[in-house]
Protein 1
Amino acid sequence: MTKISLPSHSPLLTKEFVYGVATASFQIEGGYEHRLPCIWDTFCDTEGKIADSSHGHIACDHYNNWQQDIDLIASLGVDAYRLSISWPRVITRSGELNPQGVKFYTDILDELNRRNIKAFVTLYHWDLPQYLEDEGGWLNRQTAYAFEQYVELITRAFGTRVFSYATLNEPFCSAFLGYEIGIHAPGLVGKQYGKKAAHHLLLAHGLAMKVLNKTSPNTQNGIVLNFTPAYPLTNSQEDIDCAKYADDYLNQWYMKPIMDGHYPDIINQLPKDHLPDIHPGDMALISQPIDYLGINFYTRQVYKAHPTHIYEPIAPKGPLTDMGWEIYPQSFTDLLIDLHKTYTLPPMYITENGAAMPDTINNGEVNDQDRLSYYHTHLNAVHNATEQGVNIIGYFAWSLMDNFEWAEGYLKRFGIVYVDYETQQRTIKASGHAYKALISNR
Ligand code: NCW
């Protein structure tokens, strides 16, 4: 396969449909000495947490290479670039703006605007300032108010440079992976933490939406959630109940409060010490209207009832990506249709979709047929959902380029552009060329 193709009548082939590429600050920037430490610096310094014992001090050195990287983005012909702001780069220890950090981003935003590339700015993609973690991080309600202040300051500083804001990226990952099973920063383990952290993250989202309505009423403002659809292994009631529980615990826990103003009913089954600390007015803040919903999709999980582990998925059968994640595009269509049936949805962007694959570079070329085919089947899965009335208005490939893949370090490559970390040379992969062709042939 050399091409990503879609049915000729597809809404994904109209000029209005937004195509973009996405990155996140900690994963690409480096420029470590020009910002405050964050929880991922500390996590990387903790033995045994990162597969290759690496860190984010240099990463793709985007801090120094951002101009060439914008050339690269422009050369792909995309309509939009989704980036995140490093909170510890733009805010000082005393909570004021750091002018040098702000300039780094305003220069990038100005350059994107000059080239007519829409800037989709994520305000939090996991790099919490370490000084806030020292006060309890997302277990401390005050962190939500610190986020509110940061959002107020940074969005005023950005003025009219931005097209769209996302408050948070994947609060599931911050709360569950970071504060419940400990495989992401800050690495806490305990069921008594996960839902408490989740609530403060959602509160931070609600507070930030209120700020954005005031400081940036003309941008599209929303949130980015990840979904890993849960399927029962068999039609037995036990397996169906198990998958439903997992879906409520892992996916709908973040969606339902935003859309419906309350947590899934399984909240009534949780032991008291696992419960979030909900104050009067919190759920109203959390469920304020959003202009759009960002959906990140990678894979599904299959569940079999188990006497003790209520939401332990079974090991996936192939085909798998290099992350060990099952490639199952039908579940992308199923997910979008389910959401459409369950909620009254705003327009949606696919804010991330893509695959890590074991790439090799040969004679200056990366022939990543497996990733190319992932994009082909998943874009068609999105198309199939639009046929059933789901309103998807854009799609972002994760990721623009290979980068620091969190607990996997530099071992997993998600880019449509290959990065040689020794030389910082970028090479567009076959998938990147195919993505470019899809966009320009619309
Ligand atoms: S780990 C994760 N990611 C990857 C990361 O690079 C990016 O920053 C994130 O936004 C790629 O996209 C997101 N997300 C976790 C998704 C959970 C999938 C669960 C699979 C379980 C088998």
Note: The mean pLDDT is 98.
Protein 2
Amino acid sequence: LKVEGGESWFTEEEEGLVSKSWNLMKKDAGEWGLKFFLKIFEIAPSAQKMFSFLRESNVALEQNAKLKAHAKSVFVMTCEAAVELRRSGEVVIRESSLKKLGGVHLKYGVVDEHFEVTKYALLETIKEAVGEMWTPEMKRAWSVAYHHLVAAIKTHMK
Ligand code: HEM
């Protein structure tokens, strides 16, 4: 999946903005991950039902380790996407992982709107986490990386 305009489109500075903000958040990844998904469920309550580990669990949402792990995956994989975009101009994920990722999201009924809401919640969470460090440039860098990661996943959701 090539980035429009070639390699220079996602710059070293943009990669830096993504990694800088994630480095700030990652020591409290569980807490931010929870906030992130609570925002998603606030906007799209029905999304909760898709997660088997929420349906099948008696523990409170706040205590659910698998929910926090999924949230962290979204953060970490978006960061990795940023690194790859800067390095090669495309999101590089091992084909077998991508196939699995696409298959799982298709199977559980994740649609475009879920990815959209999740993007919004992701940006809001980072904004809250980094405070005064938040800039339009940081927002754009995360948006672009997330967009390309999702596009890669979607190629395996048909
Ligand atoms: C499962 C990553 C977006 C819902 C997973 C898994 C990963 C992952 C790594 C585990 C796959 C496995 O079983 O091996 C991501 C990434 C995303 C993303 C990187 C965005 C860039 C979303 C969105 C939703 C969603 C937007 C819905 C709101 C789910 C569900 C599962 C899942 C329902 C299966 C959970 C279960 O086992 O019950 N995702 N995800 N994901 N994801 Fe995502």
Note: Residues 44 and 113 are 9 Å apart (CA to CA).
Protein 3
Amino acid sequence: MSVQETETEVILTHPDNKATTVKILKYGATVYSWTLAGQEQLWLSTAAHMDGSKPVRGGIPLVFPVFGKNETDELLSKLPQHGLARNSTWEFLGQTKSNPPTIQFGLNKNIANPEMTKLWSEEFNLILTIELGADFLKTAIEIENPSTSKDLKFNWLFHTYLRIPDIEDTMISNLVGMKVHDKLLQEAFIDKHPVIQFHQETDVVYEKVTEERVVQVVRQGHPLHTVKRDNLPDVVVWNPWTEKSGNMADFEPKSGFKEMVCIEPGYVTDFVTLQPGKKWNASQILSKDKLKYQAIQ
Ligand code: BG6
């Protein structure tokens, strides 16, 4: 059976290889494990809360309707950092395709975490589609504004924690020449480094990166991960390094920052403004793929 549902999670197994699986917690519709032929591709903290008491530290938490902590928007500033999708229990809508196994989860105002909808009471319908390919994982989001009179204003982001052997010999490629906003320096500049390397805490947002730019996590000349994006122009690159991870109670082991890097495709520099009755779609595809070098233009 390629789809198994329990009270708290859903597990997909690829029909051609039973060691290719994806596991999704209904809480947050959080993908918390993805194995390709037996090899785990995502990082998950050993102290992650898996009981719905806190967003999951690791896997692919979903960020909606606000990225980070908004201080200025009249409505969105009331929500906690990264919004309400990662701390709401989603409804499992079932399987839509058998090969590659594909399933859907839904979230709307009526079933979302009431602590959050008290703070932000807009109407929304989200459908998350998860497709487990033999050699890829696709996560796609559809956002509908069901209101008949009001625009829906939001950010979306897949907060993907990728597993890597060692942050110190890992590079991120194909973002050269892009405008980057460094959240720690609070400065924006054009990044001329041919690749991104990590020596300290990194928290940057590459802005309006064209879809042709395929972000790759490269080690010893081979891509460990390839991230393709559709309608997600911004790419956040995050590694908390020693001090920040040391201060996060749910980040374990403390040396775990060496084995993860977040590549987070999103729509976060601007807000999407969706008119009444309209829908918006976006997706990310994770795979290994071949090395592709895209130089500065
Ligand atoms: C990243 C942000 O997307 O998420 C960082 O750019 C933030 O600033 C990180 O620290 C983790 O956020 P949280 O809320 O899961 O601790």
Note: The mean pLDDT is 97.
